[in-house]
Design brief:
This protein is of the alpha+beta class and about 140 residues long. It is about 25% helix and about 30% strand.
């Protein structure tokens, strides 16, 4: 796995991830380090898609870090059953899948080429703290 950052710090009254049997559900992850939002603002049609790569990579690593904290010794994340990506985007923005591909790339780098099942990418009018993007993942433990 890529160099992992410290455990995400919840911004409210919830856990970063929870486990039920062999499934792990992460809370919504935004691009934060040590609780501080590193990227903010609405995704604009005028933005280069690449300008969102680092934010998406950071929040995806946050999600993986939170999920891995639910593993027992000798276990690993075997598969991402669901990847949900929420974009704080202008109404005219339509390249949602290209931004979400950055999250898929991080998961593939860390878990292998066939690690992602279903994926949803949803444009929204706002996200917490004006984050440009947020993701949640549901993982199967192997």
């Amino acid at each position: 796995m890529s160099k992992i950052i410290e455990q995400p710090i919840p911004q409210g009254k919830y856990l970063p991830a929870v486990r039920h049997a062999d499934l792990i559900f992460t809370s919504g992850m935004t691009p934060r380090k040590a609780g501080n939002l590193m990227y903010s603002g609405k995704i604009s049609v005028a933005d280069s898609i690449e300008s969102h790569r680092d934010a998406v990579r950071l929040l995806t690593l946050n999600a993986l870090t939170a999920a891995q904290a639910c593993l027992h010794e000798g276990e690993k994340i075997a598969f991402i059953l669901q990847l949900s990506v929420f974009l704080n985007a202008e109404k005219e923005f339509t390249a949602h899948a290209k931004v979400a591909d950055f999250a898929s790339e991080v998961l593939i780098e860390n878990l292998g080429s066939n690690c992602i099942g279903s994926r949803a990418v949803i444009g929204v009018s706002s996200l917490p703290s004006n984050s440009p993007v947020e993701i949640t993942i549901i993982c199967k433990v192997g």
